[in-house]
Structure formats: C-alpha cells, structure tokens
Amino acid sequence: MRNVYFIAIIICLASCKQSQKEISKTEDFKIGLEKLVLNSKQKGIEYYVKINIPKEVLEYKMTYIGVIENSKKEKLDFVYSTIFSGVYEDSKRANSIITIYKNQERLGHYYVGGGFNKTPIITENEILINYDDDCNQSTRISFRDSIPQKIFIHCKEENGKMLGDLYNFEKQN
User: Fold this and answer.
1) Cβ atoms 110, 103 nearer than 8 A
2) CB atoms near residue 114 (< 10 Å)
3) d(C-alpha 32, C-alpha 104), whole Å
4) In 3-state terms, what secondary structure has residue 97?
C-alpha cells in the first residue's frame, strides 16, 4: 500500500475570475509544489494538496517517479502530477502531466490528459505507463538518447492496429 501525505492549505480568493497575475501565481504555486516533491526524492509517495476555495474544487496530487540517466550521463528527474478542478466534488476534472527536470531546472512536460489509474514508474531507465482498466497494453518510453518530442501511450490492439494517445513534449519557456 502506498503512503499518502495530506497537506492542507487554505487560500481565500475574492473572486472566481482570475487575473493574469493570479494565473501566474497559480502556475508558480504548482511549480513550487513540484519542486518540493522533487527535492524530497521520495520515489512513489503521493503528496496531496487541497486548496480551500469557496464554491470550487482545486486539488493537487504529485509523485516523484524517479531519475533516469541518459547516454550523456545527465540525470533527468520525473514528477507526475494530477490537478483536480471543478465546481463540485463529484464532477471535478483531472488534468495530468509528466514533468522533466535536469539539475533542478524544469525542462518541460507532457500533458497526458486525465491521467492514469496507476502512477507511471521508472524501470531500467525507461518510464513504464499502464493506461487504465479499459486498456490492456503497457508503454515503455526510453529517454536514453534524448527527450522524445512525441510519445504514444498504447491502450489496446484491435484488428491489428494499436490504439492509444499521442502526446507532445512542451518545453519550458
């Protein structure tokens, strides 16, 4: 059974409409949480943060999934994050990313939609992803030679064709 750490943070916002400055603060907050998880180096532990906002749901679940050493002997760290948001608890949406860091610098991320039922893991310098209960395929992604610009996450095979989703690497600005 995985350990889950709960962190309660209360943030009061005067309005539901966010200005550009507030959106920037939200992004800074998310990256700050990522860095806390990254610095913990506690592989596989889920960190959970719930933001208390009136009439809204905003929750972060983050996991440090490990480090991969590429052929250039550079170490790449990976954080898997899911952000839950919405108006009601029972109708919140999930948005997930796999973020890559090198030397504590955020290189970028893959937006991977609603996420996976199982947290991705690192085995043999590859990320192993199992989509969800409806899929019967696993995907191994190698970072040995470079960071792939596109990754294809397999779901299932039907009539000789592999079905799944394609995601792009979005570099940090």
Assistant:
1) no
2) 11
3) 12
4) strand
Q: How far is CA 24 from CA 18, 30, 59, 132, 151, in A?
A: 10, 10, 17, 32, 28
What's the token pair of residue 20?
């550009």
CA distance 21 to 103: 28
Sheet holding 126-130, edge to edge: 121-123, 126-130, 138-142
- Residue 110: closest CA among 92, 91, 127: 127
Q: Positive or negative CA dihedral for 53, 9, 97, 104?
A: positive
pLDDT tens for the chain, residues 1 to 173:
444 444 333 333 333 344 444 545 677 888 999 999 999 999 999 999 998 888 889 999 999 999 999 999 999 999 999 999 999 888 889 999 999 999 999 999 999 988 777 899 998 889 999 876 678 888 999 999 999 999 999 888 889 898 889 999 999 87
The token duo for 107 is 């290189």
**138 within 8 A of 128, measured Cβ to Cβ:** yes
